[in-house]
Design goal:
Chain A contains three helices and two strands; from the N terminus they run H-H-E-E-H. By secondary structure, chain A is mainly alpha-helical. Chain A has a two-stranded antiparallel ribbon. The chains are: A mainly alpha, B mainly alpha, C mainly alpha.
């Protein structure tokens, strides 16, 4: 049987992969996907803790509730984020972050 | 064999997840990346199921791979994104990013190594415990502020020795988390309105 | 005591009501006049009362600024002069200013002036005096510049204000010095503190007292227009004539003398005996007196003649104070106030009748055309030139007596002024009132209305009898109103006869000035010196210094340095703001790692 730390390691590695994607990639859609990976990595952690922390002999469903809400909010976030990307593309004709430097001081 | 199989399942799904994640970052075609995300999420859903979180695992597939990733693909196609061909990142940039990730991983291992591990002793949940749980769930306590009825589906299926995951999630959601659930509805509505107003073409 | 508070604040309330509520309402002049009349009534009721009341206006630590009223013979007597002349001037102004567009502003200014002057007179401490001293400066500025559309009036107002400021600076230094010497600002406690200081530091005492008195005298030099700050007073004649009568003849310019005398009384006259500062004061007074009298002989503007005459008489008073015969000076102030106000108002009536013609060479024969005005003017002249048994005679006699006792040189100067005064006044009378008219304006002049000549008549009566009214005067000299047939009387009478007869012979029937002394006509070139040398040099030097400070220190170091510092920090910081998403994400990741490091491993 897998132990808690194994799940947490997988979760952490997935988070690290997501972070690497955010830092290394320049396509804003890929960056967005990597963000979703990082969110899911956090979800995995929550589920793992939920399972390993039993209440009345059953998994702690409070953790799963949190995951449920994260997924729902992520869905809303993705919808809005993609709409913003589309609007950005309309304005700039690009989704490459090295061309989107309007914030340059 | 009985011990090995769940462990093997875990490693298969874990490998699927991590490989999918690496592919997302590594592949240069956005569509491929999106497919890698799907792979990754399927693996993740599998991991959820190994953790007895059946409902969340299914939701993960339905919502993430079914809805969100399809949305991503739509957008990729809508914007007609090709394979990235811009000049490659400078070596220093890649090194900086990788060293950041490496530092994170080292910290992760350090944290995990410093904490006591915990074995999943009773997987799958055994029948004996479930009957006891059914008794506990019908009584009100600090852990259980909303007791279930003695003849409810939850109790019935627990007595039969199967975990009524969806029923338990539903019970929790509509009792303790009722108000946040309503708020979530409002949030989704606001997001919908926001998306509409964002993607509306500005007519003069 | 309550009536004293009313006396102090009534004019302020009226001024505020005029300015804030009534504005251009036709009621304004009458309200101001009524308040002046009410002040007069209160002043008469307060005569001879004594007392002290006040409240703390502001406290800083154990030091408090006090607004207090000091009632004694000096202040009540002075109040009578201020309100008496003030009321008559108000009445006169009703007629004189009735066609003026800004009539309400004028009367508001008068009320404000009455308030300020009342404050100076009633003040029981030096800070309050100073506050009202400045207020007098402001209201005088407003009134001189009443016809600000005329550039000369605006300039005169500025000049008056600036000259006063120069003096006031010294005044303030003097007040602070005096405060540090005596530890008190109240007139009542000063003497005690001064004697304590004298006992503690006998070596320093005389020098410091002299310095303090001289600094305070600077204020009087500014306000009472003594040399070398006398230049503003003749220019101030640009203001409406009743203002000249009220402010620049009777009250405001007398404030300097009043304040000096108040200081002398508070500290005790014996401290001033033989003090270096006293000599300086006396000599400045005498010099001013002589110089102004000489300048007056060559002026052709009727108001300027009176202005220089005022300067000359103020010089007399200051000299008397300097000779430590302040009560003689105050008595002269008292009598002079009435007859000089009379002369100014008389000149106002003449100017009004002659359609604002001020040149005496364009007047003439006015005695027949406007007899009442002319006769009152003659009475005023008689008082000024000290015809025996008029008020001016008694007071001038006292000053001459004081000079004769103290210092022969000063006495000779005073006697010379006593010759010059009849000379220029007779010249004025002969040219303007006698003979035949020299222009259409004076030809068509006719008697002014009763609103104007009634105040003149009242003042004429007072000009004659004030010499016997020493009981209500601000100070009662020992021999006021007494007449002795002694050497002094003959000297004075001789001076009068010489001065007036020479002038009479010289100017009778002349159409042009037969004497032309450029030096006197040009006012000893003092004004020119100021305009062409002192002011530009000072302005350029100060401007250069200020420019240096402004450009190099303020602009270069403070403002510019700060801005350059901010800009360079910004330059460094903008490198961080690359606008590249990856960099930001990297920074966030780094932050996360650091947070984990510090929370878990540190």
């Amino acid at each position: 049987m897998a132990s808690l730390n194994e799940y947490l390691l997988v979760s952490g590695l997935l988070f690290a992969i997501g972070l690497a994607g955010v830092v290394l990639r320049r396509n804003i859609i890929i960056i967005f996907m990597c963000l979703e990976l990082m969110l899911s990595a956090a979800n995995l952690t929550l589920i793992a803790f939920s399972r390993f922390h039993t209440v009345n002999g059953l998994p702690d469903y409070n953790g799963q509730m949190m995951v449920f809400f994260v997924i729902a909010v992520a869905a809303a976030e993705v919808a809005v984020g993609l709409a913003i990307i589309v609007a950005l593309y309309r304005a700039r004709q690009s989704v490459q972050t090295d061309q989107l430097t309007a914030l340059k001081g | 064999m009985n011990q090995l199989l769940p462990s093997l399942v875990f490693w298969i799904f874990a490998g699927l997840t991590l490989l999918g994640g690496i592919a997302v970052v590594a592949l240069r075609n956005p569509v491929s990346s999106a497919m890698a995300v799907v792979t990754c999420f399927i693996g993740l859903a599998g991991l959820f199921i190994t953790l007895s979180a059946f409902f969340v695992g299914i939701i993960q597939i339905l919502v993430y791979t079914g809805a969100i990733m399809v949305l991503f693909l739509f957008i990729i196609m809508l914007l007609d994104l090709k394979v990235e061909k811009g000049n490659a990142r400078s070596l220093a940039g890649i090194a900086a990013g990788l060293s950041l990730v490496a530092a994170f991983v080292i910290q992760l291992i350090g944290v995990l190594g410093a904490n006591p591990d915990m074995e999943m002793s009773d997987a799958p949940l055994n029948k004996q415990r479930m009957v006891e749980s059914a008794q506990l769930l019908t009584k009100e306590s600090d852990d259980n502020p909303h007791p279930v009825g003695a003849d409810s589906a939850i109790v019935k299926s627990l007595k039969e020795g199967s975990l009524p995951d969806v029923h338990l999630v539903g019970h929790k959601l509509f009792t303790e988390y009722n108000f946040p659930l309503q708020m979530l509805g409002v949030l989704l509505l606001v997001a919908t309105v926001g998306v509409v107003s964002l993607s509306k073409k500005k007519s003069a | 005591m309550n009536s004293a508070w009313i006396l102090l604040f009534l004019p302020l309330v009226v001024a505020a009501a005029n300015q804030l509520v009534l504005r251009k309402h036709s009621l304004v002049p009458y309200l101001s006049t009524a308040s002046a009349a009410a002040s007069l009534v209160i002043s008469i009721l307060l005569l001879g009362k004594e007392g002290n009341a006040g409240f703390d206006w502001a406290s800083i630590g154990d030091f408090s600024l006090r607004i207090g009223i000091q009632l004694d013979g000096l202040s009540t007597g002075m109040m009578l002069v201020v309100t008496g002349i003030g009321t008559l001037v108000h009445v006169f102004s009703l007629a004189y200013m009735k066609d003026d567009e800004a009539c309400s502003r004028y009367f508001t200014g008068l009320s404000l002036f009455m308030f300020s002057m009342t404050g100076i007179v009633l003040a029981d401490n030096f800070i309050m005096t100073f506050i009202f001293w400045e207020l007098v400066g402001v209201s005088s500025y407003l009134l001189i510049g009443h016809w600000y559309q005329k550039p000369s009036a605006g300039d005169a107002a500025k000049k008056a204000f600036l000259c006063n400021r120069v003096g006031d600076f010294g005044f303030m230094v003097g007040i602070l010095l005096l405060w540090s010497l005596t530890g008190s600002l109240a007139f009542e406690d000063m003497r005690e503190g001064m004697i304590r200081f004298q006992d503690a530091n006998p070596a320093l005492f005389t020098g410091l007292l002299s310095t303090a008195v001289l600094c305070i005298f600077c204020g009087a030099v500014g306000k009472s227009a003594q040399l070398p700050l006398h230049v503003w007073l003749p220019d101030a004649m640009e203001g409406p004539t009743p203002v000249s009568a009220l402010i620049h003849a009777a009250t405001m310019v007398a404030a300097g003398v009043y304040m000096l005398f108040r200081l002398q009384v508070s500290l005790g006259a014996e401290l001033f005996e033989g003090l270096f500062a006293s000599h300086v004061i006396a000599w400045i007074g005498a010099t001013t007196s002589l110089a102004a009298a000489l300048m007056a002989t060559q002026q052709s503007d009727i108001k300027k003649i009176l202005a220089y005459s005022t300067l000359s008489q103020l010089g007399y008073m200051v000299m008397a104070v300097g000779l430590v015969h302040g009560e003689a000076g105050m008595f002269h102030l008292f009598t002079h106030a009435w007859f000089k106000a009379l002369l100014f108002l008389g000149s106002g009536a003449i100017i009004y009748a002659c359609h604002h013609e001020q040149d005496i060479w364009k007047m003439g024969g006015l005695l027949k055309k406007m007899p009442i005005t002319a006769i009152t003017f003659l009475i005023g002249t008689a008082a000024l030139i000290a015809v025996p048994f008029t008020s001016g005679f008694f007071s001038k006699e006292l000053i001459l007596h004081a000079a004769k006792e103290s210092n022969m040189t000063l006495f000779i100067i005073a006697a010379a002024v006593a010759v010059l005064t009849p000379f220029y006044m007779t010249r004025l009378v002969v040219i303007a009132l006698l003979g035949k008219s020299r222009s259409d304006h004076s030809d068509h002049a006719k008697e002014v209305g009763p609103l104007m000549w009634v105040p003149l008549a009242l003042l004429a009566v007072l000009a004659v009898i004030a010499g016997w009214l020493s009981g209500i005067a601000p100070a009662q000299p020992a021999h006021a109103g007494e007449f002795h047939l002694n050497a002094l009387f003959f000297i004075s009478l001789g001076a009068l006869l010489i001065g007036s007869s020479v002038a009479f012979i010289l100017y009778r029937g002349k159409d042009r000035d037969p004497v032309c002394i450029a030096l006197l006509r040009e006012l000893f070139y003092v004004d020119r010196f100021y305009d062409n040398f002192l002011v530009p040099v000072f302005q350029n030097t100060v401007a250069a210094i200020l420019h240096f400070f402004d450009e190099l220190i303020i602009n270069g170091l403070l403002v510019g340095g700060l801005s350059r510092g901010a800009a360079s920090i910004g330059q460094v910081c903008r490198a961080i703001q690359s606008g590249k998403l990856q960099y930001y994400a990297f920074a966030v990741g780094l932050g996360v790692i650091l947070v984990v490091y510090f929370t878990v491993f540190y």
